[in-house]
Design brief:
By secondary structure, the protein is α+β, with helices and mostly antiparallel strands. Helix 2 crosses helix 3.
């Protein structure tokens, strides 16, 4: 049984039965939702950025630090697998960046969606040199 607050909004009382969760309905989280969360999380790792676009295996343009990383995800119930394609800034440790990226993706996806990430594959396709300010002759 529920009661109503002073504004007439229903509130749960202590006699509510939380074990009837299955009767409330189901929640399905699409692959694309996991891809968006993981893509954003991947680019929040220092040294990682969205990889440059590729055409026929050739990089077109530069790494895109302000974009989401290219991510593919597959959700099966409450478990997901993720594949991220990124660029790692030169001269950072690829192994370290990949490890931190895996941890960040797992944490963010779990915290925001409740879906457990079982596996994160990281594909590093570019090592862009850090941009330095152009030199001026005085």
């Amino acid at each position: 049984m529920s009661t109503r607050d002073e504004d007439g909004v229903p509130t749960a009382d202590e006699s509510s039965n939380p074990e009837d969760a299955a009767e409330r309905g189901s929640l399905t989280i699409a692959n694309r939702v996991i891809e968006r969360v993981a893509g954003y999380a991947a680019t929040q790792v220092e040294g990682a950025s969205a990889a440059p676009r590729r055409l026929l295996g050739i990089n077109i343009g530069d790494a895109r630090p302000d974009d989401e990383a290219s991510v593919r995800a597959r959700v099966d119930g409450q478990t997901a697998t993720v594949e991220a394609t990124i660029a790692v800034e030169w001269p950072r440790s690829i192994v370290d960046v990949a490890q931190r990226l895996r941890s960040r993706v797992r944490d963010d996806v779990l915290n925001l969606t409740g879906v457990q990430v079982a596996h994160v594959d990281v594909d590093v396709v570019s090592l862009p040199a850090p941009t330095s300010p152009s030199r001026r002759v005085q």
